[in-house]
Amino acid sequence: MEYMHGISSSGGMGAAMVNYFARKGAQVVVNGRNGANVAKVANECNIASPKKLKALQIIADVTKDDDCRRIVETVVCHFGRIDILVNNAGAGAFGSIYDPKLMQTFDHMMKLDVRSVVLITQLAVPHLERTKGVIVNISSTLSVKPNVHFMPYCLAKCAIDMFTKCIALELGPKGIRVNSVNPTAVRTNFQSATGAGDILVGVLKHLEETNPLRRIGTTQDVVNAVAFLASQESAFVTGTHLMVDGASIHV
User: Fold this and answer.
1) At 92, is the pLDDT very low, low, confident or very high (cuts 50, 70, 90)?
2) What DSSP state is assigned to residue 186?
3) In this structure, what DSSP letter does residue 39 have?
4) What is the DSSP letter of 56?
5) pTM for the full predicted model
6) For residue 38, what are the CA distances in angstroms to 18, 42, 58, 88, 115?
7) Second CATH level (architecture) for the domain 3-250
8) Greatest pairwise CA separation for the chain in angstroms
């Protein structure tokens, strides 16, 4: 494995992913808005790398177009290539049709969870063409299973699923595979950013009790799925959504 670029890889699920690829000997990029978190995860990757490779650190906000461009330009300038792009930027948000701030929440969700992914991907595609690379988008089971508490997030992840399918068709002839991983709830620091408070606690408890496997997901469950889709083991898999959910979407 030569090179992996992870978007928003400085915390939670993203940190677990970038650490995995570092342990496998990939050159990795750690980026996020919090410089201290970026440095911490990068140091963990440096220690984990069997080749003692140094993770590239980028502090950026993917809701800003200039930062998205800077991310891709910095990566290509530093490494000269992109083999694997994992689009993990995102946050959840509580939102009801009765919420007076619904449109503000909706706009933020679409900008962070959708627009940034589309732009980063567009910027990375010319480089992925050269390497016959792989794109893995992190979606959610909420793209297919509605939830009254997280309507704006459901809409955003539904868009990511369709984006995945559309560009899988367009980029397939270029040798680029595109898939998404759709986890159920996973306990990470992501959830503290939702602003849902007690509602989120109740949702997680309900998901755990009703899941056929009687648990919610772990970051390792998601990492394993991403690793499979990024590898040659899935060489004939593209345009698919891999549910990592313990069959919860069928409950």
Assistant:
1) confident
2) B
3) H
4) E
5) 0.91
6) 11, 6, 7, 15, 22
7) 3-Layer(aba) Sandwich (3.40)
8) 54
Residue at 21: amino acid letter: F
Which residues have CB under 8 Å from 207's CB, separation 6+?
Answer: 184, 185, 216, 248
Cα 215 from Cα 221, distance rounded (Å)? 12
**What pLDDT is stored for residue 56 in this prediction?**
96
The pLDDT of residue 49 is 96
- Within 8 A by CB and 6+ apart from 122, the residues are none
Residues 6+ apart with CB under 8 A from 140: 153, 154, 157, 182, 183, 184
* Two tokens, residue 180: 């998404």
| The predicted structure's pLDDT at residue 138 | 97
Active site residues: 153
Give residue 154's Cα distance to chain centre: 15
Check if the beta carbon of residue 65 is closer than 8 Å to that of residue 123. Answer: no
The alpha carbon torsion through 37, 40, 45, 47 (nearest 10 deg) reads 180
